[in-house]
Amino acid sequence: MIRKLLIAGAALLVLTGLAPPSNGASEQIVIIKDQRLPMTVGEQSQVTTVYGLTSITEQCAAQPSVLWCNRNPLPEKTLDAYGIVQLSLEVKDKFHYTSDKVDNWRVHSSEVLLGQDWYGDCDDLASTTLDILIRAGQPRNRVWLVLADVQHNGPFDHLVAMVQDVDGHFWIVGDTSAQNAYPADRIKYRIAGTARGDHMNVWEAPSTSGAFPISKYLVE
């Protein structure tokens, strides 16, 4: 569930989480903006940037041990497609969708590593999957959190994650609306904003529609 009050310029945006996904549907964020709809591309970009930065800042304050909340060196070994798919399955194996009473992004790697049942929503699954992949060696500059617009009618209504494998292929992981990882070029969502694992305090809003712009995310 996503429940925050954000001020974007002079516009007041009320973001309210709805029911958990069913039959492949994602959780939805309802956006109300001073009787002026639709939002402009610039306003969407601003909301995405503010929301992503606010969420990451709160997450790191509550969970400073999360691997993108610090710049400490980590052992790195870029994973292959098989490793990404298998680890994604393990993360989701005992995941149970539940809406947040208060919106926050949380990593549940300890429960995953202990083989325990764990509970969360789309942002928790995306965050936990990325954390586990980084713990397995995936470089932080080859993972992203991705704010997505499932309904194609607003800035965003869903959070997933993305990872680039050793062969350069991109995968969407930690998606509550999918059984497992899948190639990023098969994504049906509009990408509203992204942040890379080594710079989670920098959110970009490409405002794309249609095909997923893979070339944009190639590691420099």
Question: Can you characterise this structure?
Answer:
The chain has 220 residues and is of the alpha+beta class. It has a single domain (4-217), classed as C8orf32 fold (Roll), CATH 3.10.620. Helix content is 25%, strand content 23%. The chain contains 4 helices and 10 strands. The chain has helices at 41-62, 81-93, 109-113, 122-135, and strands spanning 4-8, 11-17, 29-33, 95-97, 118-120, 143-149, 158-164, 170-173, 182-183, 190-196. The strands form 3 sheets. The protein has a 5-stranded antiparallel sheet with strand order 9-8-7-6-10, covered by helices on one side. Strands 1-2-3 form a 3-stranded antiparallel sheet, with helices on one face. Strand 4 (95-97), helix 3 (109-113) and strand 5 form a beta-alpha-beta unit. Helix 2 (81-93) crosses helix 4. Residues 1-36 and 207-211 have low confidence and may be disordered.
Features:
220 residues, alpha+beta, C8orf32 fold, three-stranded antiparallel β-sheet, 25% helix, globular
Rg from alpha-carbon coordinates: 16 Å
Distance between the termini: 34 Å
Give the proportion of residues in helices: 10-25%
CATH architecture: Roll
**Arithmetic mean pLDDT:** 80
Total DSSP helices: 4
Order of H and E elements:
EEEHHEHEHEEEEE
